[in-house]
Amino acid sequence: MPHSDLLPAPDQILTARQMREAEEALIAAGSSVDTLMQVAGRGAAEWVWRMAGRHRVTVLCGPGNNGGDGYVIAEALRERGGHAVVVAASEPATDACRKARALFGGEVLGPDAQVQGEVLVDCLFGTGLKRPLSVEHAALLDRLAAAHPRRVAVDLPSGVQSDSGMLLNEGLPEYELTIALGAWKFAHFLMPACARMGRQRLVPIGVGAVEGAAQAIGRPRVGAPAADAHKYRRGLLAVVGGAMPGAAVLASVAAQGAGAGYVKLFADSKRNVPADLVVDQGALANVLSDDRNTAVLVGPGLGRDAIARERLAVALADAVPVVVDADALVLLAPRHLAGRGAPMIAPVIATPHEGELVALERAFDLDGAGTRPERALALAAASGMVVVAKGPDTVVAAPDGRLACAARASSWLSTAGTGDVLAGVIASRVATGVDAFAAACQGVWLHGEAARLCPPAFTAGQLAAAVPAALAECL
């Protein structure tokens, strides 16, 4: 099966079960385990070669088909003139692994071999691992990792649980590169595993689209305004301020750069507000009764007192999409959403961090069990909201079961105010008329891209200022 003939679905994220079924479907359609192993292994070898060239490479092979991929990688490197040796943790336990080992023309060493080199390729275990590495396997991996300054994981780092991103062993190595085979897995996006994977690349093997699969959030396609556009047609976003006005101003500035034609801030004061940001000091009910509004953002700097509760209730009474963030998430209860109907007259997007996610789970009588994607989906189903569970491993879930995961963004985002920026960007995108789930995904991508464009140790204000440049990357 030539690599160029593959028609992958590159953005989907599969569970271990879905990946196994997808491979079985390829085999039922006329492929074979051996053929798929050759495609996967040789595709991975391309990335290893780019890193290692003719430097010494050690490939650690396990007994299963992940080990078989390793033998294929080693042979592909050897054929190109590279120096690759295999350390076999144990004898092959599958027919495909045995065949791949028989085709390898290089040196196969036992687990006690003392090997040093430039690059270690970890093919010990991949997708499907459910229990910790044995003491012997963990010690072997640790010893070889220490003897190689650069490390590559094939499919997943050994010792990682595919569906949850859990580390099944303590002290697992960190990798410079992780090469996903066939499709992305949830562990490529979820903490703590993804933090150890370095750069990530995908090698397709011909897996088609899987119904119900989660998606990786990618660069959105955003068009310029129509030739006859005006500010209201591009979308009017009403931002509800509160006790701490700076957060709402920050969200509004971010929203101005994310596509909405008009951002109006409801606030008690115009102090420290940019000249180009409209502030309405009138009654909130009047601000939100403007039938030109296309979205509302409530929460950043709102506070948690009686006035804040009233403002949240008024915001949710508007028959347009509403983004609920920060303090509003702590105040939010099922009764606030009941008046919006089932299905809702217009969508609500919630953007909780971990603490706020726990508070919402309690409010909607959820036990908080399961993986991060499962928790987000459960909250979305129970509440009817699109849920953006934000953090170093952000996931977006819709009430209809759609699910998306964001690639790991800059760790410099761990500073005060960046969540307000995210809320403003998402609200701006939904104000332009984009579907709520898509707007949430677009906002998450733009937020991460703005962080990439900022210098280290940036402030939330600098992040908001970088949003227009991030949007430009999508045009």
Describe the structure.
- It is built from 16 helices and 19 strands.
- By secondary structure, the protein is α/β, with parallel strands linked by helices.
- The chain has two domains: 3-216, YjeF N-terminal domain (Rossmann fold, 3-Layer(aba) Sandwich); 236-472, UDP-N-acetylmuramoyl-L-alanine:D-glutamate ligase.
- A hairpin with a 5-residue loop joins strand 17 and strand 18.
- Helix 3 (65-79) runs parallel beside helix 4.
- The radius of gyration is 25 Å and the shape is elongated.
Secondary-structure blueprint:
Blueprint: E1 12-14, H1 16-28, H2 33-52, E2 56-61, H3 65-79, E3 83-88, H4 95-103, E4 108-109, E5 119-123, H5 135-146, E6 150-154, E7 177-181, E8 184-185, E9 199-203, E10 214-216, E11 236-240, H6 245-256, E12 262-266, E13 278-280, H7 284-288, E14 295-298, H8 306-317, E15 322-324, H9 327-331, H10 334-338, E16 348-350, H11 354-363, H12 372-383, E17 386-389, E18 395-397, E19 403-405, H13 418-431, H14 436-453, H15 460-465, H16 467-472
Parallel strand pairs: 1-8, 2-3, 2-5, 3-4, 5-6, 6-7, 7-9, 10-19, 11-12, 11-14, 12-13, 14-15, 15-16, 16-17
Antiparallel strand pairs: 1-10, 17-18, 18-19
Helix pairs in contact: 2-3, 3-4, 6-13, 13-14
